[in-house]
Amino acid sequence: MSNQSLVGTLPIYAQHLAELTGVKVHVEGIQAKTDGKNVFVPFTEDDLPLSFGYIAHECSHVRNTDMGCFRDSSPTPFRKNLLNILEDIRIERLSMDQYPGTESDIRYLNRKVLLEPFRPEQVDDCPALHVIHNGILYGGYWLLQEPQLEVPAKAYLARMETLLGADLTDQILTLVKNTLTCASTTDVLALVDAIIDLLPSQEDEQEDAQPQPEQGSEGAPQDSQESGGGDQEQEQKQDGSAGPGDDGKEEGQPESKQETSDGGQSGSEPQDQSQPSGGSNAGDDGQEISQSSNGSGKPSPEASNLREQAKDATEADLKGLISEVGDKAGELLGRKAVRDGNPRRPFSLDGRGRNRSDQASVRRVQLGIEQSAGLRQCLNGLLQAQVDCRVRLKRQGKRIDTGRIAMMKGGETRVFRSKSRAERQSASIQILLDKSGSMKNAMDQAEAAVYAVLSALEGLPLVTTGAMSFPNKTNDGVERCALIKSPKERLIRAVSEGGFGAMSEGGTPLAQALWPAAVEVLRAKGEKKILFVITDGGPNAGTTHAAKEFIQRCEISGIEVIGLGFGDANEQILKLLFNHYCAVGEVANLKNSLFGLVREALAA
Known about the structure:
Blueprint: H1 10-21, E1 24-27, E2 33-34, E3 38-41, H2 48-64, H3 67-73, H4 77-98, H5 103-115, H6 121-125, H7 128-144, H8 150-164, H9 166-177, H10 185-198, H11 202-209, H12 212-236, H13 246-263, H14 269-282, H15 286-293, H16 306-312, H17 325-340, H18 358-382, E4 391-394, E5 399-400, E6 416-419, E7 427-434, H19 443-457, E8 463-473, E9 479-485, H20 491-496, H21 510-523, E10 528-535, H22 544-556, E11 559-566, H23 571-574, E12 580-585, H24 590-603
């Protein structure tokens, strides 16, 4: 792992998408979830595209989904499931359109969740309501988003045609295709209701059955005459050609038109009247079953009350169905995180730490101010780019080199002086402060050093600075890093907001705390990327190798990591972790100890 760059890792991607979407993304814990404002994803490097797709999916939910519609639909589980399916398609398409880089990851998630678990034998074993559910799920994704779902989609749609008939299936799929035209979750819910209303119902059959005796009294003789006339003509024309007479065509056409019209209805009576004559010609009932199975007839008896089933179905009735691909992906990620069993998952960056003292803040800030003046003068010069500043002679310019005027008689025309302008080099600098229990006696000096460096660098063009501390145990019991100063924040505001005055606590989970610090350095603009780690050099037992390995990954990623030792730290301890280090001890020694390292880092 030590030879892998940090670019493209899960925390980096999460931070990047969080900046794009404005949704807070936390890489922590072992459970993937969202609370409507924040997205949480467990750290795993086993299947990064799935993690990336999950983050993109849930961020789009937070941005575009009205959760009130899900609360409204929750009393009817089947309705809520269909809303989940179509809303997922809508918000995923929005993410692809707004942030094209998310498309490949979202489509990977769709295949992982829907295609890999599919087994053809499952289709025939499904109850009727499950067939409708999965037909809309797979059919919708296949038609609107993921072509590779063709096989499962066609399998479920074929079974769906067997239940509903081709025309009714087409009507439902037409509504499903309208998902991408919906402007809101409310529109999607209206689409779901329209789909449920299309499902066959016993109420519809009863309503159709009541007026039909009157129609039958007027229309039945006519139908019987037509059918009878057709039979007579068929007998008379057995020896002749099928269509020389125009009358035969006129009487044959209404039958075909009536059959087509019936196919578009939910089971109309005229189709039943035409079947006996068809049955007398065909000879048995097997052809009627085949007509129903190929989708040309009315809905099968199994589907006669699907609307009632949809409205009455409980969560238990729908158990095992996938309706929210994001939730299913979250389950997969959670299982991967548990199977990983990695006890050193990265910390995320939280807000200001609460375990602090105003008196300590004032004391340390004042000490830092006293030591920052000399640092500023040095760092201001060191942040110049390495350019060739030698004087050059040109044939044109604004300044003449008076010493070369006499050479003009000999034909020398390069008498103008030109000097390259030194350009300031951009830099991104982050400070990670160890405030573990072992740093208790060194906290004043260490935090004063943080302030001194930040103060010396503040205001320099093309330089961004930030700082954070660890460990910080929050109310939910999760350890994170605490913010001292953000890159876009002025130092005076960071002080007033409680960034300084931290009290020591806990252990030294350095390997985990390095993650958010490295993320902040990489995301900030700057040709030079520097991470100062202020510590006593003693990580938690058994984690020294992991911390060393991560520092190597930082350097491969272009981050210069510098260890500044305080407290009990000495060079023997620091060299076990860092390639660049110095034992400072007290903030008064900071200038002399730091200048050599900073010069090497910024001017290399």
